[in-house]
Design a protein that fits this description.
The chain has 216 residues and is of the alpha/beta class. It has 7 helices and 7 strands. A 7-stranded parallel sheet has the order 3-2-1-4-5-6-7, with helices on both faces. Helix 2 links the parallel strand 1 and strand 2 (69-74).
Length: 216
């Protein structure tokens, strides 16, 4: 009983902190920069390993109209930032100035992490995700399954709930998922605006999903 009360108190405290941080963001009087006509700012959730490779292939196929690009990486990921910079360096050769930023938040869930501790770590990541998303105000969130995308997508939804901006959530399930969705996919299947799968077997099981063949 005592442990349950302590856990409830911790969750209540985290919720209060989130609300307080949102209030601070709403009170800010920064003037947003004017966007180029026809451009769309993109928040790109970068996972690690295969997730990074897939999402960067997808970003590499986007036109210059999708800018600026805001990459969000887990703080324990030591390799993805170099890959992002290499991709953007190639883009910069064709443009007058860099059109991207890189941000870090706590990892939402580690591999083989228990469900109980995952809830706490996800809430902790949410504390950093909400202020970041409210600051960037992206037009869309692009993700492909890393656990880090869950608090970021939740923050994007909250951005619309409070009436600040509607951010499209575009989820592309990893090519590795043939028979079943990832945990992130199951959580975001009903919350995303566009949900893409790369195998017809998944589209049959999840009718909302869009199958266009292999995307990455």
């Amino acid at each position: 009983m005592g442990l349950c009360c302590e856990a409830a108190a911790v969750l209540l405290l985290l919720v209060c902190i989130v609300i307080a941080r949102i209030f601070i963001i709403l009170r800010r009087s920064e003037t947003p920069e004017a966007r180029k006509r026809g451009s769309a700012s993109v928040l790109v959730v970068v996972g690690s390993g295969g997730h990074t490779t897939e999402i960067l292939r997808l970003v590499g196929s986007l036109s210059a109209s999708y800018a600026p690009r805001h990459y969000v990486i887990a703080d324990t990921d030591s390799m993805s930032e170099d890959k992002v910079r290499a991709l953007e360096a190639a883009r910069t050769e064709e443009q007058s100035q860099p059109q991207y930023t890189i941000h870090r938040i706590p990892r939402s869930r580690e591999v083989r992490q228990s469900w109980t501790s995952s809830v706490v770590s996800t809430l902790y990541a949410l504390l950093y995700s909400v202020p970041l998303v409210f600051q960037l105000k992206p037009d869309m969130v692009l993700c492909n399954g890393p656990g880090t995308c869950v608090p970021l997508c939740a923050s994007a939804l909250l951005l619309g709930v409070v009436g600040m901006k509607k951010a499209l959530i575009i989820y592309i399930e990893s090519i590795c998922r043939v028979e079943s969705l990832s945990l992130s996919g199951k959580l975001l299947y009903h919350l995303s605006d566009y949900f893409f799968v790369q195998w017809p077997t998944l589209q049959e099981k999840y009718p909302k999903a869009v199958f266009l063949g292999r995307l990455v």
